[in-house]
Design brief:
- The structure is a single chain.
- This protein is an alpha/beta fold.
- The chain has eight helices and 14 strands.
Amino acid sequence: MGNLEEYAKSERALQNAKKQKSQHPKGWEPGLDTTKKEITSKPQKKAGNPQDHKWDTYLEELGFNPNDFEIIEPFEVRTWTANMGEGNTEQFYYYKAKIVSKQLLNEKDFDYQSLLKEIKRKKVKPQKIVGKDSFVVCLSDWQMGKRDGDGTAGIVSRIEQMIPDVKARYKQLRKQGVELSNLYIFGLGDIVEGCEGFYDMQTFTVEYDLRRQKMIARRLLVKALTEWAPDFKNVVVACVPGNHGENRNQKGKAFTTFGDNFDVSLFDEAQEILAMNKAYNHVKFVIPENDLWLTLDVSGTIVGLAHGHQFRTGGKYSHQKAVAWLSGQAFGMTEMGDADILISGHYHHLFVVNEGKRTLFQCPSLDGGSDWFENITGKSSYAGTLTFSITPGKTQLPWDNLKVV
């Protein structure tokens, strides 16, 4: 008599076809593009004369007027030898650099200049940490400058307490045996409140103008980065733009580009500040050029970041809108459609939804609440900062050790 399992087994010569997942950046690999559409030069042949490598030539090739724009350090130059056939080889060069306006406001921002000097004086030694686990910190909806609740003073107080609380949390996890060698810091948007155009009463309720909002937020962001970075082997700082960071016109509408956003420029400035000290060379920044979302490979798990203001349809509740938006990304086969974890903010309260094999995190805010929202709905939420860890090779949920600090 034959084996019952053999009789009951159906024939399957070929398995289901499956689209290969896109390669998502890890954040620290050599040659990481900090944007999906980062401005880089095409491969250039070796210059015959040193003067042929002037940056003005490359700026003009990319459509920038050298009188109005310049390339700032750090910039990268790479070279390789290409086989041209018939035994001939040729040397090629690759350039990657940051292009900024010569009218950059930071030149007159004395607080920014003082931060540069402060960073240069810091002496830190990154610890030699073993392991492949990653610790994730989600900075969302600080709304710096908002008067509601306990105002800006309350926001600052919570951030100042959050910084040592995060440090205590990852030290606690290490004592419990979690081998955290990588730190991921995610800026989920709405770091500043803005001054006008986001709701009718805003102009009369903000406590600081935009410059002061950015100044306070920038100092606290740099303080957090420099406090945590020495405790990890690899540090990746990524951000996405929020709606309160948009450059809006008098009608309250964003009128330039997705990338023209104060939430993003804060991280641009933080990157420039930390670049002034080689002790922070292990800190890498992933900053979108003109996109509302990005993805990263975090210890083998694809993590997607989006502020959440683009979640427009799908149901009454924010988690329904998030599921609908991610479903659309998957249907459209974007890189976000590969995400195992989607992290968002915008709605100022925590939710954790396991939808199929994906997890959706919505981050709480650190502001003092919304008088308008509480009066209209009766609802309020607790302030906090979402943290969790990711372990490579976990058979079920890839994340663990969730805590709001």
